[in-house]
Amino acid sequence: MTELDPRDRGGPAQPLLTVDGLVKHFPGKGGLFGKGLAVRAVDGVDFSVMKGETLGVVGESGCGKSTTARLLMQISRQDKGDIVFDGELLGSRALDLKAYRRQVQMVFQDSYASLNPRLTVEESVAFGPRAHGLSAAAALSRAHDLLRRVGLEPRRFGGRYPHEVSGGQRQRVNIARALALEPRLLILDEAVSALDKSVEAQVLNLLTDLKQEFGLTYIFISHDLNVVRFMSDRVMVMYLGRVAEIGPADAILSTPRHPYTAALLASQPSTDPNARLEEAPLTGDPPNPINPPPGCRFHTRCQFAADICRIREPGLDPVAPAHFAACHMAVAGSGHPKAPAAAMAA
């Protein structure tokens, strides 16, 4: 049985992170048609992350995955919506931003750009603890310990600068740096997508081991569904700033209930020559996020679109235990011709 974290405030049944109505619009740059318009990067996102789980987040480029991550880290501030961490509202007197960031850290995609080129590896890892009040000697000792845990010998790598180590080693440094404040939640934004496959496998195994060792919770953002399948307990699919589907990883990846999720899964390349696709499972580009279509945002690309999809926006409704989809076709009695029949009243 996993030992309870002394920082735990609500017990294992309380979500570690709850996001309610998260909205981030980026204003247009003016001009004849840009004035007053905004890019709806994140447009009403709701989800929760349970303690000790890994939530995988997938979707096309531009769907809002990375913007959501930046909002969770408060690198960008949301226009609307609440972030609740273990029962405490971010920004309230119970949980200010500094205390929140001690418990939530992020690993970015670009391992080189996210490290200060003027700091050595050990200085980069020790910087956070020092900024939060740890002595220089204690911060350096913690940095050396974490470097060992991510497979980098401090005497060999501690004095090197970012340009003197490989991409995989830099990402290990970033992971060590993220762990230096002893967080409870780690947000991994495409953290392995820039690595060679052999190095990617090593880092994924490292992340799995560290999660167990430190009792971590992960939000794992990726465009690689095979990686998400390996890492995740639950999966959230995003499309055009909204959540299209969320549920257990096995259910989402084997029996998707949203056509967009099914198209993403069908888009995976196969090594079987008899399983090659003759037609692309998904055609066209996502609609303009400045002016998304009415009704279901996916209806312009969906082969199952019906009149109701063009008129009424679907809610994120339950379609199976712990499984939710924003699709009229998946909800009984929705009015879609392919929807399950509504249950008769007793």
From TrEMBL:
<protein>
    <recommendedName>
        <fullName>Glutathione import ATP-binding protein GsiA</fullName>
        <ecNumber>7.4.2.10</ecNumber>
    </recommendedName>
</protein>
<dbReference type="GO" id="GO:0015833">
    <property type="term" value="P:peptide transport"/>
</dbReference>
<comment type="function">
    <text>Part of the ABC transporter complex GsiABCD involved in glutathione import. Responsible for energy coupling to the transport system.</text>
</comment>
<dbReference type="GO" id="GO:0005886">
    <property type="term" value="C:plasma membrane"/>
</dbReference>
<keyword id="KW-1003">Cell membrane</keyword>
<keyword id="KW-0813">Transport</keyword>
<dbReference type="InterPro" id="IPR003593">
    <property type="entry name" value="AAA+_ATPase"/>
</dbReference>
<keyword id="KW-0067">ATP-binding</keyword>
<dbReference type="GO" id="GO:0005524">
    <property type="term" value="F:ATP binding"/>
</dbReference>
<comment type="similarity">
    <text>Belongs to the ABC transporter superfamily. Glutathione importer (TC 3.A.1.5.11) family.</text>
</comment>
<dbReference type="Pfam" id="PF08352">
    <property type="entry name" value="oligo_HPY"/>
</dbReference>
<keyword id="KW-0472">Membrane</keyword>
<comment type="subunit">
    <text>The complex is composed of two ATP-binding proteins (GsiA), two transmembrane proteins (GsiC and GsiD) and a solute-binding protein (GsiB).</text>
</comment>
<dbReference type="InterPro" id="IPR050319">
    <property type="entry name" value="ABC_transp_ATP-bind"/>
</dbReference>
<dbReference type="InterPro" id="IPR017871">
    <property type="entry name" value="ABC_transporter-like_CS"/>
</dbReference>
<dbReference type="InterPro" id="IPR003439">
    <property type="entry name" value="ABC_transporter-like_ATP-bd"/>
</dbReference>
<dbReference type="Pfam" id="PF00005">
    <property type="entry name" value="ABC_tran"/>
</dbReference>
<dbReference type="InterPro" id="IPR027417">
    <property type="entry name" value="P-loop_NTPase"/>
</dbReference>
<dbReference type="InterPro" id="IPR013563">
    <property type="entry name" value="Oligopep_ABC_C"/>
</dbReference>
<keyword id="KW-0997">Cell inner membrane</keyword>
<keyword id="KW-0547">Nucleotide-binding</keyword>
<dbReference type="GO" id="GO:0055085">
    <property type="term" value="P:transmembrane transport"/>
</dbReference>
<keyword id="KW-0677">Repeat</keyword>
<dbReference type="GO" id="GO:0016887">
    <property type="term" value="F:ATP hydrolysis activity"/>
</dbReference>
<keyword id="KW-0378">Hydrolase</keyword>
<keyword id="KW-1278">Translocase</keyword>
<feature type="domain" description="ABC transporter">
    <location>
        <begin position="17"/>
        <end position="265"/>
    </location>
</feature>
<feature type="region of interest" description="Disordered">
    <location>
        <begin position="267"/>
        <end position="292"/>
    </location>
</feature>
